[in-house]
Amino acid sequence: MGPYEIEVGWQDEPPVVGILNAITIDIREPGNVEGASMGVNNAFKNLQASVVSGGASKVLDINTDPRPGHYYAKIIPTKTGSLEIKLQGEVNGIKINEIIPVEDVESTSVLDFPTTSGSSSGQEVTALKNAVTSIQKDVSLIKSQVGGIDTSSGNFDAETAYNFGVFGVSLGAAGVILAIIAMVKRK
Fold first, then answer.
1. Per the UniProt record, which residue ranges are transmembrane (predicted)?
2. Helix residue ranges, H only, the chain
3. Predicted model pTM
4. Coil, strand, or helix at residue 15?
5. Among 38, 84, 128, 181, which residue has the least CB neighbours within 10 Å?
């Protein structure tokens, strides 16, 4: 970008969704000694930086680092994926119009420890809903089968059958409650 070296990155890598971080921008120009460079002071006097994600864009509030040529903007990434930094304006009369990609934002799973079993709470809730639905179908099936039994023959004890049915449904409900408690404690 003309005589300037511009490096853009993250203060803390890897960048993680929902965790405060900062975009760092270093702007340097050739020094008096070959191979050496110096930081450019007041580079953002006529230069603007924006962060771009897909079609969304936000102008960054640039802060000056105590080190010459080093600048940063605090940011909390809100979704995973790639971001680009768009620099527009001029530095000491040199036009700048660049888009620079930075490292992709990661999900919090890169920092999770100990790792979870791979099932999310959404999957657990779905599994519990399916279990309750299955129990309801079983109870309906038992009701329909008991409805066809002839109780007038005297060989059928309705009270005992009812007690076993209530006992079975109670065990099923207790299992669902224990599963919910286990899921809540794990979080």
1. 161-184
2. 121-147, 158-186
3. 0.60
4. coil
5. 181
pLDDT in tens, 63-120: 999 999 999 999 999 999 999 999 999 998 999 999 999 999 999 888 877 766 655 5
Question: Can you tell me the distance from the alpha carbon of 108 to that of 19, in angstroms, rounded to the nearest whole number?
Answer: 9
Per domain, the residue ranges of the chain are 5-110, 121-186
Please say whether the beta carbons of 66 and 37 come within 8 A: no
What single string gives the DSSP state of each residue in 47-88?
A: EEEEEEETTEEEE---EE-SSTTEEEEEE---SSEEEEEEEE
- Could you report the per-residue pLDDT of 135-166, keeping only the tens digit for each? 877 777 777 666 666 555 566 666 777 888 88
> Which two structure tokens, joined as six digits, stand for 1?
């970008």
Helix H or strand E segment including 89 = strand 81-91
User: Among 6, 87, 8, which residue's Cα sits nearest to residue 46?
Assistant: 87
Residue 115 · residue 23 · CB < 8 Å: no
CATH class for the region spanning 5-110: mainly beta
What is d(CA 143, CA 140) in angstroms, rounded to the nearest whole number?
A: 5
